[in-house]
# Entry
Amino acid sequence: MCGIIGHAGRADRTLDVLLAGLEGLEYRGYDSAGVALANGDLDVCKREGEIEMLQRAVDPGLGGPVGIGHTRWSTHGPPSDANAHPHTDCSGDVAVVHNGIIENYDELKAKLREAGHEFDSDTDTEVVPHLIEDALAGGASPEEAFRSAVARLEGSYALAAVFAGSEALLATRSGSPLVLGVGDDAAYLASDVPAFLEYTDRVVYLEDGEFARLESGTWSVTDASGARLDKSVSRVEWDAEETAKSGYDHYMLKEIHEQPRALRKCLRGRVDELTGTVNVEALEGLEADAVQFVACGTSYHAALYGAQTLRAAGVRAQAFLASEYATSPPPISDGTLVVGITQSGETADTLAALRRAKGRGVETLALTNVVGSTAARECDRTLFIRAGPEIGVAATKTFSSQVVAANLLSASLAERGDAREVVEALRDLPGQVQEILDSSRAEEVADRFVDSDGYFFIGRGYHHPVALEGALKMKEITYRHAEGFPAGELKHGPLALVTDRTPVFAVVTGDGEEATKTVGNVKEVEARDAPVVAVTDGASEVERYADEVLSIPETHPRVAPVLANVQLQLVAYYVAAELGRSIDKPRNLAKSVTVE
Ligand code: F6R
# Structure
């Protein structure tokens, strides 16, 4: 999704900060990029394509005490130089960058055209500099003009503007994130902390309806009426090292390998291994008659897992796709807790579902990775998964941490259950993940099946979400067709697609009824000549029917899905690597999806 960076400080540093900031935002996904630096004039440069295209095009001598930069992910109009941000007014004296969607832009554009304004792009954003231009022409100051333009907008936005002849950078937000960075002699603005983390870890989170002014290295925040607000500065725990690739070919591989550490951090101080009890400060006193999870994509798979875990603990629980919940919410009773699982804490669909739940008067909980994110700030409670920054678009370590956090939630609400056994298994989990990372045969398996027509993933019970997640990972980074199913469903239709060119990855652990039935399903695909890859702890007889085996250590059935999933993450990674795909930034995808 789109990204914003801004800088107010030394004139000769602005361009470097903007370009480095745009690189720091690359992971969000984009198709064009641009910068605007204000000095006596306004210098704007923007290009379709990679940031490298912009770097080549921009005059390296450009300077200015303030500047803004943007990575665009197309919503209104295709990727092009003209549609890239920043957008300017007719005179070229006002430059604006925008994340989000301005819903009434058609109407505003028509009025502005009638008044003689000319437009260069297909974007919704371009109305903003023209609205500012109108107000400036009426004698308003840049700040008054910015506020009056913003007052006419409907929709969601994070906006930043700079002006020829002014040393002020003005910004505001409504429904789209913006954060200020506080440096010693510079102030920064970004849609996401990694954009300026190299310079400072001190941040101020803007709330909807607040306005920021950055000037000569200083910052201030005011409310809609212009009254100054006393905002607190907090420190982010992430450091620049954590957001670097550290010798790995891709962020995704680095993040897969970070899982043992991420899981330890998720558990630290929250479980007592001796007594087998779970004690999470954020969940103290939490009670719920029922739980509804809302989430999207990979987080939805964690939600499916979470709902099963809670049901096993005697709590009524369901998982919903947030985009569906937001428009067609299910019935809800007073004691229901609605849990939004969202790595970024900024996914528009999940935020909409959580707001819908809040509007119905029930308690909400965010299960998220990002401190200061919108979900964390809007929900009644927040359980942080502490996975550290995830830069690769494909979620990996955050899924594992979400699953572990779901267990903490379940143990906190449990009516009954086996918390002690689960805690013991969770204690061993980081070491077992490390074992898999050290010994996995995923690269060989990927090599054997890289030329397949498609990939199927099957699993039962707790392994059903893993099957879905294995398929999602495969399709998003390899661009190959992949589907995941509950193992028993394959024969009810999808089996028609199974051939000797469609490997079936079967996740089977333990030797209970679920394993026995899944082995039966494996025999069905084997009889259709499909190659079988068993992801297994070796307890069942699945290996007898498998062409390849990806082994995982034995553990509690509730914890095994995390281990199986690590093997599937690696297979997807190595297939994509062999195909030469853009693994960290797959086509058409974005890290945090801030439109509904
Ligand atoms: C897939 C992936 C997406 C996200 C989804 C929700 O690898 O990353 O499916 O899981 O967009 O994002 P969050 O968790 O940030 O709400």
About this structure: The domain at 250-430 is CATH 3.40.50.10490 (Rossmann fold). The first helix runs from residue 14 to 25. DSSP finds 17 helices and 26 strands in the chain.
